Amino acid sequence: MTTPATGPAPAANMRVNPDRLWDSLMEMAKIGPGIAGGNNRQTLTDEDGEARRLFQSWCEAEGMAMEVDRMGNMFMRFEGADPEADPVHIGSHLDTQPTGGKYDGVLGVLAGLEVVRSIKDMGLKTRRPIVVVNWTNEEGTRFAPAMLASGVYAGAIEEGFANDREDAEGKRFGDELERIGWKGEARVGGRPMHAMFEYHIEQGPILEAEGKQIGVVTHGQGLRWIECTVTGKASHTGSTPMRMRKNAGRGMARLIELVHEIAMKHQPNAVGAVGHIEIHPNSRNIIPERAVFTVDFRSHQLDVLTAMVAEFEARGLGLCEEIGVTLETGIVGQFDPPEFDKALVARVRESAERLGYSHMDIVSGAGHDACWINKVAPTVMIMCPCVDGLSHNEAEEISKEWASAGADVLLNAVLETAEVVG
What we know:
Oligomer: single chain
Order of helices and strands: HHEEEHEHHHEHEEEHEEEHEHEHEH
Number of strands: 14
Shape: elongated
Distance between the termini: 28 Å
Largest sheet: 8 strands, mixed
Radius of gyration: 23 Å
Strand content: 15-25%
């Protein structure tokens, strides 16, 4: 990948329309409302289809042309002075968690649209086209893994594998994509891409705690998801002596504590937790025979990530053997830590400084579509704070001022990258 070329730095007064951006966010939030003020707009549901149609209508009203690939990724193109030049892409996702907020992903897509609207307001023209992208199934809550369609785009996930993913009801990704009418004809991947920007809420507490308006994302965290199966022996909780038990639940408890211990040894920026848990037979008066759960380790340093996994697997076996249960492990999700393009990172930082916004370098603690696209094009992320760092929760909240500050930085960095010509 080559370093993205640059045009003249935009004037310091180039800013988005904060009210229009906020109104767009609130209008989109009406589709797939949650039960506590957020959203339930899971991928490839009817609500997802409705959100896509609204986004399409807004983009086409600005003169943008749509292309959809076989994964349902939406590419909305705003033409440049040189149609042959590689476009600058801006993108994130419109799908949400079952109990998601109004901003996770959505802010990045609609801020991309706002960049185009603001360029038109100012009567500017860029040499390079600008493409605003909605990536399909970033959340991965209905069809695992997360960042599915951007992973196919980047060549990291097979298209056939993606189409065969099933939800909890046994419905296939490919079938549901066709059902809602968003399976396109364009091949997945290989599109000319000069640069890719993703704007996102932080989903963590650092920016708010430090009093910073802008997070300049230098790296993403790599992750390893380890599915663990602890096997013991089911027996009566009342009549089985303590010394004779083979308690899979106890084995799981030991391993959960081990995960925390290992992550704490590799501070800062390394994390680990157990989220998904299944206990069998899951009865009040039966000692668990089997526990199945997933360990989530993350770090922006590959050697640290590798060391955490190795230590967990080695020590975990011993902890289980000590109490008479067995442990089987397997990697069910992974990607290596991305380092975002240094030139684009510097451009985002300079844009924040030129606009007078406080900022700091930050590592993304969550996975994003940009982490996959970084493999095939120069990529960078911009973040804004969120209240108490809360995300993947209907109480997720940001302010209009935070949203527009990050969008201002996005606008200026994109204009410089897309090269203003008039």
